[in-house]
């Protein structure tokens, strides 16, 4: 039945609506299993009823009307027990309940299985026959398998809207999505017009290669000018490190990258549109095959560049239609250029069917303070012209809201505006608590191909600078001079403030386009320090470039990623010492400055048992809480199936963080806390309660966390430490800290609890 199974799943997945998907399902199952009846009941969680949603065999007029209370009838028992029930004669079962409106008098045998998604029963799939017989194991397995596939389709459906208004297109409940940038927006949906799709371009040969190259050069120049003007426009609204996202785009248009590959295809005899399609699809595939979420999202940027080139080929420079009032931009895939096209005063929010928190669009949204939802499991074209309320805190989208909901969110929007003004007004002041304790506030940087990062207002320095982007955006390893120039410019931008640069963290899940690595489990593979120690020539060139910039600027420290054992630290330290000696010798320095400090990222659980030895070998530690949580809990935080298990407040994670700070104090080792946890109000309270006093986070969260620190008593937080460590669940820890936030009248900074 494998062939039939695939065919049914494919047809159901491609259906335009829930009703058509379920109609296809019940018909195909009935035919494939040779049964007399197949039905789907969907859970109405508000009413605690199972509603007949589709059938092929029962009375059609009962669809949407016949309801079975949860736990009643055999169907209700399937949902409650969360397991299949197979009966030769359902009427003999003590739970049997007859629904006269379904006209099921002639059916005796019954096989029902729950439709379950992430531990939640979404409905029940049932087959029935007029003869009295038990369904065999193969039939039961087939139905269970189909129900598992169906769960994915149903999980992406706005059930309550469908159940409450089965015949009208009326929105009664919020649509859930992934929050990529917090905040609230109220405005009309605005759908950007689209240009021709790349996949629709024919791949054909052309005899006039010179003419094709001329066409491409014109389109290339138009696109470069367009990106340049967009970058200038965004530079007035954003920090330079974020606005320089367009540097990435410009680099793609260089001859050493996309443009060069397109030229080569044209020279091979391809028509320019076909050459463009071949090259873009090749790059997109490379990025999409990467497991690292940030790099995977770069496929969106490549597509955007490709579409801009195609647009220039088709139409030349032409003005886009731009809204004249605040709108919520809605698209299947939002790109960075969409942000730049619309004046900031008209950009109220962003909704994207595809994308994630690591996309450049999401980065821009957070940097600009624009609420954004991504990963919307809904055809966004249906939102055209609708009034929307976007809740970036709870990840909810309200369509055509009623007056009560609208008035509530208007009030919340006014409160949010006041809060933002409040936390921003003292951004330049130090983060000193009520009881006089100072907390060092650093930022995480290096997400884009930046070479000129302006000092972030209010930051004491850079706690984590990612050096990967220059390596990722080239078709070869960057030279020592290229790296030196970039690092020098960055350090010069932060004169007097320390910049902690992480050595190259690629490999395995972060493949370089010119040095691909194929692994079955990249998260546990050849990456970070493992790769660079195996290739000391790469490590030494980067270390020399860093040291040359440090001698000139004097504010560098170096951090080693993905350390799992002491041998790695020893070998890396030896190479760093070698690189330093070489640089000092070549520069002929009679009195060389002190060598920059070097430390390690604590992100692999094995190092938690080596902290005393690590303290003897390095100058500082930095906690990489995202990966440490992922490895401790064995949960891929980017996997939607287990996303709810990724809990940064999990007692094991909290106790590991406590162990680190205790060992740091015992051995007098400076330790900073990097990771998104420190940028969340309740998460910041947690790490402060444990004793961390050096926090690094995205610049977007800096003002809010500094404001919180200035309004709390760290000695009071420290008094909660034992209670935190004795808690047996993440929700208990979260609630304890949230309650403290409420007591300080700061709970308004947290709109929605994750626990």
Automatic annotation (TrEMBL):
Signal peptide: none annotated. GO terms for cellular component: cytoplasm. InterPro entries: GAF (IPR003018), GAF-like_dom_sf (IPR029016), PEP-util_enz_mobile_dom (IPR008279), PEP-utilizing_PTS_enzyme (IPR050499), PEP_util_AS (IPR018274), PEP_util_C (IPR000121), Phosphohistidine_dom_sf (IPR036637), PTS_EI-like (IPR006318). Gene3D superfamilies: 3.30.450.40, Phosphoenolpyruvate-binding domains, Phosphohistidine domain, PtsI, HPr-binding domain. Its cofactor is Mg(2+). It is found in: Cytoplasm. It catalyses: L-histidyl-[protein] + phosphoenolpyruvate = N(pros)-phospho-L-histidyl-[protein] + pyruvate. Keywords: Cytoplasm, Kinase, Magnesium, Metal-binding, Phosphotransferase system, Sugar transport, Transferase, Transport. PANTHER family: PHOSPHOENOLPYRUVATE-DEPENDENT PHOSPHOTRANSFERASE SYSTEM (PTHR46244:SF1), PHOSPHOENOLPYRUVATE-PROTEIN PHOSPHOTRANSFERASE (PTHR46244). This is phosphoenolpyruvate--protein phosphotransferase.
């Amino acid at each position: 039945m494998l062939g039939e199974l695939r065919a049914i799943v494919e047809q159901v997945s491609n259906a335009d609506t829930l009703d058509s998907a379920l109609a296809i399902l019940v018909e195909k199952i009935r035919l494939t299993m040779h049964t007399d009846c197949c039905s789907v009941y969907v859970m109405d969680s508000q009413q605690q009823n199972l509603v007949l949603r589709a059938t092929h065999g029962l009375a059609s007029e009962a669809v949407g009307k016949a309801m079975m209370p949860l736990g009643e009838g055999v169907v209700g028992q399937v949902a409650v027990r969360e397991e299949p029930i197979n009966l030769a004669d359902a009427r003999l079962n003590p739970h049997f309940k007859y629904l006269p409106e379904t006209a099921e008098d002639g059916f005796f045998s019954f096989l029902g299985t729950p439709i379950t998604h992430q531990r939640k029963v979404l409905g029940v799939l049932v087959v029935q026959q007029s003869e009295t017989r038990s369904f065999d194991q193969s039939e039961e397995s087939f139905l269970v398998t189909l129900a598992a596939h169906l769960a994915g389709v149903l999980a992406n459906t706005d059930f309550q809207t469908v159940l409450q208004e089965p015949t009208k297109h009326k929105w009664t409940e919020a649509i859930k999505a992934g929050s990529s940038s917090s905040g609230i927006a109220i405005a009309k949906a605005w759908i950007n017009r689209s240009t021709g799709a790349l996949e629709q371009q024919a791949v054909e040969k052309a005899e006039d290669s010179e003419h094709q190259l001329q066409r491409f050069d014109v389109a290339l120049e138009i696109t470069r000018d367009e990106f340049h003007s967009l970058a200038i426009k965004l530079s007035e609204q954003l920090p330079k490190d974020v606005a320089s996202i367009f540097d990435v785009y410009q680099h793609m248009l260089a001859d050493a990258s996309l443009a060069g590959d397109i030229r080569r295809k044209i020279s091979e005899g391809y028509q320019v549109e076909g050459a463009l399609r071949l090259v873009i699809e090749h790059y997109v595939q490379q990025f999409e095959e990467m497991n690292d979420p940030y790099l995977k999202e770069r496929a969106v940027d490549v597509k955007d560049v490709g579409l801009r080139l195609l647009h220039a080929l088709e139409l030349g420079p032409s003005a886009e239609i731009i809204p004249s009032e605040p709108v919520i931009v809605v698209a299947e895939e939002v790109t960075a250029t969409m942000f730049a096209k619309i004046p900031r005063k008209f950009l109220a929010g962003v909704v994207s069917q595809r994308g994630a928190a690591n996309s450049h669009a999401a980065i821009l949204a957070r940097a600009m303070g624009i609420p954004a939802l991504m990963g919307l499991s809904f055809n966004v074209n249906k939102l055209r012209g609708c009034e929307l309320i976007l809740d970036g805190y709870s990840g909810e989208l309200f369509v055509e809201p009623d007056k009560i909901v609208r008035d509530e969110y208007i009030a919340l929007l006014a409160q949010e505006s006041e809060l933002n003004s409040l936390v921003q007004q003292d951004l330049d002041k130090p983060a000193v608590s009520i009881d006089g304790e100072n907390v060092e506030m650093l930022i995480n940087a290096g997400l884009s191909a930046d070479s000129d990062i302006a000092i972030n207002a209010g930051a004491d320095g850079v706690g984590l600078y990612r050096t990967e982007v220059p390596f990722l955006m080239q078709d070869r390893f960057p030279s020592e001079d290229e790296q030196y120039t970039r690092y020098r410019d960055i350090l010069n931008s932060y004169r007097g403030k320390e910049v902690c640069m992480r050595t190259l963290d690629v490999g395995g899940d972060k493949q370089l386009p010119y040095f691909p690595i194929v692994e079955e489990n990249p998260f546990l593979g050849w990456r970070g320090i493992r790769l660079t120690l195996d290739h000391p020539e790469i490590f030494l060139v980067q270390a020399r470039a860093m040291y040359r910039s440090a001698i000139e600027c004097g504010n560098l420290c170096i951090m080693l990623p993905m350390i799992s054992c002491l041998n790695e630290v020893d070998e890396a330290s030896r190479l760093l010492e070698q690189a330093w000696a070489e640089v000092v010798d070549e520069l002929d320095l009679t009195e060389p400055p002190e060598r920059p400090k070097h430390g390690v990222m604590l992100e692999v659980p094995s190092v938690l048992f080596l902290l005393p030895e690590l303290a003897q070998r390095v100058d500082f530690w930095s906690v990489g809480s995202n990966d440490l949580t992922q490895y401790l809990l064995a949960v891929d935080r980017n996997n939607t199936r287990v996303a709810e298990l990724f809990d940064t407040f999990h007692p094991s994670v909290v106790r590991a963080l406590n162990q680190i700070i205790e060992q740091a104090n015992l051995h007098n080792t400076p330790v900073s806390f990097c990771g998104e946890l420190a940028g969340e109000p309740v998460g910041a309270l947690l790490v402060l309660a444990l004793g961390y006093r050096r926090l690094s986070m995205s610049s977007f969260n800096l003002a809010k966390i500094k404001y919180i620190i200035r309004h709390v008593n760290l000695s009071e937080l420290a008094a909660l430490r034992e209670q935190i460590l004795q808690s047996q669940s993440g929700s208990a820890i979260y609630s304890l800290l949230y309650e403290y936030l409420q007591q300080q009248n700061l709970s308004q900074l947290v709109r929605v609890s994750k626990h």
